[in-house]
Amino acid sequence: MLIAPLFFARKRVEFSFSTDSRLLTAADFGEVFQNSCCKAGDNAFFLLAGKNKNEQARLGLAIAKKQLRRAVDRNRVKRMAREAFRHQQRMLEGLDIVVLCRSGAVGLNKVQIRRKLEQLFDKIAHHNDR
RNA sequence: GAAGCUGGUCAGGCAAUCGCUGUGUUGUUCGCAAUACAGAGGAAAGUCCGGGCUCCGCAGAGCAGAGCGCCAGGUAACGCCUGGAAGGUGAAAGCCUAUGGAAAGUGCAGCAGAAAAUAUACCGCCUACGUACGACUUGUCGUGCCGGUAAGGUUGAAAUGGUGUGGUAAGAGCACACCGCGCAGCAGGUAACUGCUUGUGGCAUGGUAAACCCCGCUCGGAGCAAGACCAAAUAGGGGGACAAUGGAGUGGCUCGCUCUGUCCUCGGGUAGGUCGCUUGAGGUGUGUGGUGACACGCAUCCCAGAUGAAUGGUUGUCCAUGACAGAACCCGGCUUAUCGACCAGCUUCCUCU
Questions:
Q1: Cα separation, A46 vs A77, whole angstroms
Q2: Residue A16 CB closer than 7 angstroms to strand B?
Q3: What does pTM read for this prediction?
Q4: The domain defined by A21-129 carries CATH number 3.40.5.10
Q5: Å separating the CA of residue A14 from the C1' of nucleotide B117
């Protein structure tokens, strides 16, 4: 009787995406840009990571209108980034990550965006372990 | 059945699961948790018009500038919509039109053409009238001059009403008939405008106003990063009390002035936060008035409100294999993008009965 609620509680923490796991203020973003410890990128996206004091990983999105002109495209990238982060946040604990967008992101479909971002998050996690 | 026209509706569905935002309820260790419900569009887009709302000298007059422009109506308002008129276009249903003024003024018109705006004459046509010369049959003919003419030809986007008859030297609204046009009258219409077997005038006022301009109407400016409130740290300001006849500076000294300590208090205000923020020119149904846009009445419903910015991911399944595309203060329009599907009405043609 007591085991079931505990199981669900743990699972929730693993995959949730509340305000705790986001960069909220300009100061938070500034911190990452100033004191980044590692980075990863390809022609479409660029990730910057910095250490934070919490146990949680946090995500910030900086998708420029210059690269992706249509709101629909920007929304798609943001959603995919959040989704990828949500599934991989356990191995990124203690990091603040900002996702930036490059010109190569134009014309990618959902699957391509997801795959690219997952690879980049992997790279960051790997780099952090060493 | 085929081709087409007009108006309207929809914009993948269902299930499971992992998330996000808001609201209600319950619990709470006041962090939050559980649960129920709701959660992008017809264009949310372009920001091209018009309003509401907010602040700014409460915006009156004149000038400038901008916009609009057949008539009537609708509307909070409009450059929008509805109905009508005129013109154009199509075989038709229909569709399109910046559609006021060119007898207030100014300007413009390449090439071609004789001539492009007040009349003119290149090729033509004519030689009646006047005149010169010649011929001879002595009143005719020929040639020239002075001229007449705009029927015909040539140019152009556009050439000073058209057709016919008379007329004439040849011609000409020169005259007449019909058509067209102007003005007046009558009739219909709220009006734009239309009609007339009415009268009258030989007959205009070439085009261009998305050229200046004239006439009529409209317009104060800036925008939710509007604006209102709360307000840390740091620095500084106003007022009061206390210590105390204190200290420092200015100065030879006194007064004076300036600076300085502690506490209280006031206001401004940055980071940040809250409100503005979704109940509205609102939706749905229905009745009445109106050709219609729409208006009014009644009943009923509450239907996104984020703020590093939610409305999504994965899996299964069905089909027609899913286009254009994402709210950011809110409405009314316009314009542009769009795979398709469906409904209603209408037009033409074909087949059958």
A1: 13
A2: yes
A3: 0.74
A4: no
A5: 92
Residue A108 — left, alpha, or beta (φ > 0 → left; ψ -120 to 50 → alpha)?
Answer: beta
Domain spans in chain A, listed from the N-terminal domain onward: 21-129
- pLDDT bin (cut points 50, 70, 90) of residue A14 is low
* Chain B nucleotides reached by a protein CB under 7 Å: 18-21, 33-34, 40, 272-273, 307-314, 325-327
The DSSP bridge partners found for residue A95 are A51
Cα A39 from Cα A128, distance rounded (Å)? 10
For A61, list phi and psi in degrees, rounded to 5. -115, 130
**Residue A7 in this model has a pLDDT that exceeds 60:** no
Are A48 and A36 spatial neighbours (Cβ–Cβ below 8 Å)? yes
Task: Give the pLDDT confidence of A105-127 residue by residue, as tens digits.
Answer: 887 888 888 888 888 888 888 88
Rounded Cα distance, A56 and A21, in Å = 7
In angstroms, rounded to a whole number, what is the distance separating the alpha carbons of residues A8 and A31?
34
ipTM confidence = 0.79
Unique residue bearing structure tokens 């990452």: A32
3-state secondary structure (DSSP) of residue A38: strand
